[in-house]
Amino acid sequence: MLTRLLFSLAALLAACQVHALEPAVALSLVSGETDARIEALAKATATPDDKTAALIQALADDAVKVKGQQVWLIQKDGQGLDPVTGTPSPVAEDAEDVINNNRMRGEIDAALAALKLFSTDEKLRREAVKTLESETDEARLPLIEKALAAESVAALKDQLSVVRARILLGSSDPARRLEAARLLGDSHNASTKTVLVERLKEESDVAVKSAIQRSLQNIEASLVWSDRLGALFSGISLGSILLLVALGLAITYGLMGVINMAHGELMMIGAYATYVVQGLFQKYLPGAFDWYLLAAVPASFLASALMGAALERSVLRFLYGRPLETLLATWGISLMLMQLVRTIFGAQNVGVENPSWMSGGVLLMGNLQLPWNRIIIIAFAAAVLLGMAFLIGKTRLGLFVRGVTQNRPIASCMGVNTARIDTYAFALGSGIAGLAGCALSQVGNVGPDLGQGYIVDSFMVVVLGGVGQLAGTVYAALGLGILNKFLEGFAGAVLAKIAVLVFIIVFIQKRPQGIFAMKGRSAEA
Q: Phi and psi at residue 67, in whole multiples of 5°?
């Protein structure tokens, strides 16, 4: 960490005149009252050198001792260095550790962030700007202005301009406060709004006060739009998860007429398959851990598909045409599967980690961040949907499934092995449930009760979209997801759920066939 920081200071040393660390400055940084140490820290970081940076980093690492007028930097091997000369120096036995309170630690972190603004690594500079977002100390201004002049990345330059404006807002010069108030009007950050509101209470200059009020109006309008976009993205994200969960049910319930109450548990099996693959990669392929999810996708599909095929061949094949019996049988199976998982993996939730390429997100409008894991799940749901549409509409298996669904006796007379097609179709629906479990493992906890939270919603999606209708399932999933998230913003999560349920009940009363009704021989069957 220290080597990385010293390397990042090369640009700073070339850009500005620096002053060598002096013994008195080193002593003032590590001893005395907190206010005096903070003042010395601000002066030292205004024109730093590499030894000053090393001392500040050592303070952050609690690796500094002091006795009288002598200061030591403590190395990993316990040896001491003189911070001024950088030469080894024996540490006195009665030297005391330098203690930093929380306030001092915050100032040290801010100072380190300010020094990282000159790093050649864009990621380090971005982290530094984020750390300094709430900075209001005017002593940091010279360093920030130098960094602003040297910055070449437009996005970071804009963020640094906002940091500079927030510092200027506390200036004693009304002209600088006016400039800052106008600049902050272009910010889309909720924390900037808080700073402006606090400043508005104290501001006495009429022109500055008016500029702050106009900036607050601009920020509030921007925040309203970011909230709407955030709700829309959350709705699409929830809708994509509901779509993944309901796609498998659209086959087992919509096409085969089986009320599969164990659908959620098949999804749970897919999630646990992902957990098992993760464990195998951690143990045998730790270097390739970031790619475990690529192996977990087919593994989760196969695990759930095989379980679904076993259930269909052993139980459900004897219950076709009797929906109530399938409901009771699959409900019992769901309880057995949950207990089986509790026996093997335990009753507690298990942790599934995101690969590094699914961490973080895309920052929009200052305070709206779209997580990568959600974005990737939306794309994954779209890919599964397209794959399923192709399979059902364009392949020989899909033709047989549609034929058996529409008229089983005629399909059998044409030479179709209907029993085998039933098994394939149920295994396909179960496998898609496993894919849903794999996706859900990346955004929530994995436990024996995972499927219970989605089974009712998935049935609502299938019924609302129209039984056996793929397009209806898509419209219903996305529609319910977006509607639910927008209602949550007004009424809260519980009332939003109730409102959505009431809407579905009223809609089904008016249109029992759902959004897309079956036509032709499918409807007659």
A: -150, 115
* Bridge partners, 74 (sequence order): 80
What is the C-alpha to C-alpha distance for residues 509 and 197, in angstroms, rounded to an integer?
A: 50
In three-state secondary structure terms, 360 is coil
Q: What is the 3-state composition of the chain as percent helix, strand, coil, each rounded to the nearest 5?
A: 70, 5, 25
The two structure tokens encoding residue 496: 């939003």
Pairing of strands 96-97, 64-67: antiparallel
Spatial neighbors of 355 by CB under 8 A, at least 6 apart, are 289, 290, 291, 292, 293
Closest-CA residue to 477 (of 232, 247, 305, 314): 247
- Distance between first and last Cα of the chain: 70
Please, is 286 exposed, middle or buried when counting C-beta atoms within 10 Å of its C-beta (0-12, 13-18, 19+)?
exposed
Q: Give residue-wise pLDDT tens across range 148-181.
A: 777 777 777 777 777 777 777 777 778 888 888 8
Helix/strand/coil for 350: strand
CA-closest candidate to residue 260, choices 314, 341, 332: 332
Per-residue pLDDT tens for 248-299?
888 777 667 788 888 889 999 999 999 999 999 998 988 888 899 999 999 9
The closest of 91, 98, 83, 12 to 52, measured between CA atoms, is 83
Residue 419 CA to residue 410 CA, distance in Å, equals: 14
Cα angle value 432/475/431 (rounded, 5°): 5
The CA distance from 312 to 245, in Å, is 19
pTM summary value? 0.70
Nearest to 419 by CA among 433, 406, 401, 431: 401
For residue 269, CA distances in Å to 19, 220, 315, 387, 464 come to 64, 45, 19, 21, 26
CA angle 55, 59, 64 (to 5 degrees): 80
Residue 512 CB contacts under 8 Å (≥ 6 apart), including other chains: none
Q: What is the DSSP pairing of strand 368-371 with strand 70-74? A: unpaired
Task: Count CA within 13 A, CB hemisphere, residue 137.
Answer: 18
CA distances from 241 to 109, 498, 507, 510 (A): 40, 20, 22, 27
